[in-house]
Amino acid sequence: MAGKTSKTVTRCEGDLTGRNVYTRVVDRKLVIEIDLDAPGAPSSSGKNIVVASTGGNQAISDVAKDRIGKLGINFYFPPVG
Predict the structure, then answer these.
(1) Domain definitions of the chain by residue range
(2) pLDDT tens track for 67-80
(3) CA distance 7 to 72
Protein backbone atom coordinates (compact mmCIF):
# COMPACT_ATOMS: atom_id res chain seq x y z
CA MET A 1 0.00 0.00 0.00
CA ALA A 2 1.58 3.21 -1.16
CA GLY A 3 1.74 6.02 1.36
CA LYS A 4 1.18 3.79 4.40
CA THR A 5 3.77 3.43 7.14
CA SER A 6 4.37 0.39 9.25
CA LYS A 7 3.34 0.51 12.92
CA THR A 8 6.06 -1.84 14.11
CA VAL A 9 7.01 -1.17 17.72
CA THR A 10 10.73 -1.58 18.20
CA ARG A 11 12.51 -2.43 21.44
CA CYS A 12 14.63 0.49 22.50
CA GLU A 13 18.03 0.02 24.10
CA GLY A 14 19.06 1.08 27.59
CA ASP A 15 17.35 1.20 30.96
CA LEU A 16 13.61 1.71 31.10
CA THR A 17 13.26 5.09 32.85
CA GLY A 18 9.49 5.48 32.45
CA ARG A 19 6.76 4.55 30.02
CA ASN A 20 8.55 4.17 26.66
CA VAL A 21 11.55 6.23 27.84
CA TYR A 22 14.91 4.46 27.69
CA THR A 23 18.19 6.00 28.81
CA ARG A 24 21.83 5.00 28.58
CA VAL A 25 25.19 6.73 28.82
CA VAL A 26 27.46 6.55 25.78
CA ASP A 27 30.84 8.31 25.82
CA ARG A 28 29.76 10.49 28.77
CA LYS A 29 26.57 11.58 26.99
CA LEU A 30 23.07 10.74 28.20
CA VAL A 31 21.13 9.20 25.31
CA ILE A 32 17.33 9.27 25.61
CA GLU A 33 15.34 6.99 23.32
CA ILE A 34 11.59 7.09 22.70
CA ASP A 35 9.80 4.83 20.22
CA LEU A 36 7.56 7.19 18.22
CA ASP A 37 5.54 4.23 16.91
CA ALA A 38 4.63 2.99 20.39
CA PRO A 39 0.92 3.17 21.13
CA GLY A 40 0.03 6.21 23.17
CA ALA A 41 -2.63 6.70 25.81
CA PRO A 42 -4.85 9.67 26.55
CA SER A 43 -3.46 12.18 29.04
CA SER A 44 -5.23 12.64 32.37
CA SER A 45 -7.14 15.58 30.86
CA GLY A 46 -7.93 13.59 27.71
CA LYS A 47 -6.64 16.43 25.53
CA ASN A 48 -3.41 14.79 24.31
CA ILE A 49 -2.03 11.37 23.43
CA VAL A 50 0.95 10.60 25.68
CA VAL A 51 3.54 8.43 23.92
CA ALA A 52 6.27 8.56 26.57
CA SER A 53 6.64 9.82 30.12
CA THR A 54 9.02 9.41 33.03
CA GLY A 55 6.07 9.87 35.37
CA GLY A 56 7.79 12.74 37.17
CA ASN A 57 11.48 13.34 37.77
CA GLN A 58 13.62 10.20 37.82
CA ALA A 59 17.14 9.77 39.17
CA ILE A 60 19.90 9.20 36.61
CA SER A 61 23.25 8.06 38.00
CA ASP A 62 26.52 9.59 36.86
CA VAL A 63 28.75 6.88 38.29
CA ALA A 64 31.99 8.34 36.90
CA LYS A 65 31.53 11.55 38.89
CA ASP A 66 29.62 9.99 41.82
CA ARG A 67 26.52 12.15 41.45
CA ILE A 68 22.82 11.82 40.70
CA GLY A 69 20.89 13.93 38.17
CA LYS A 70 17.15 14.21 37.64
CA LEU A 71 15.26 13.73 34.37
CA GLY A 72 11.61 14.51 33.65
CA ILE A 73 10.08 13.94 30.20
CA ASN A 74 6.57 14.07 28.79
CA PHE A 75 6.29 13.42 25.05
CA TYR A 76 2.81 13.75 23.61
CA PHE A 77 0.87 14.52 20.46
CA PRO A 78 -1.71 17.30 20.75
CA PRO A 79 -5.00 16.94 18.91
CA VAL A 80 -4.95 17.67 15.19
CA GLY A 81 -7.04 20.58 13.99
Answers:
(1) 15-77
(2) 999 999 999 999 88
(3) 26
